[in-house]
Amino acid sequence: MLVSAYLGQLGLSLMQGKVxxxxxxxxxxLVMELEADLAEFxxxxxxxxxxxxxxxxxxxxxxxxxxxxxxxxxxxx
Length: 77
Known about the structure:
Blueprint (H helix, E strand, L loop, with lengths): L1 E6 L4 E7 L4 H11 L12 E2 L8 H9 L3 E2 L8
Parallel strand pairs: 3-4
Antiparallel strand pairs: 1-2
Helix pairs in contact: 1-2
């Protein structure tokens, strides 16, 4: 498996990494490796992923970095 930080509107891949073990842990690690908060630069971003990325710790990491996360199970996404 591979996790990737990608800005779709800009067509820019920020970083990616091969998953060794827990996909959710790898995704959180990738989010936390983003050195600059994208929100500081006015770049909105959303974490997308499967159910492995709906853990509370992942959502907290995304919010800490200025992003948004949404699950299909959440009304209004």
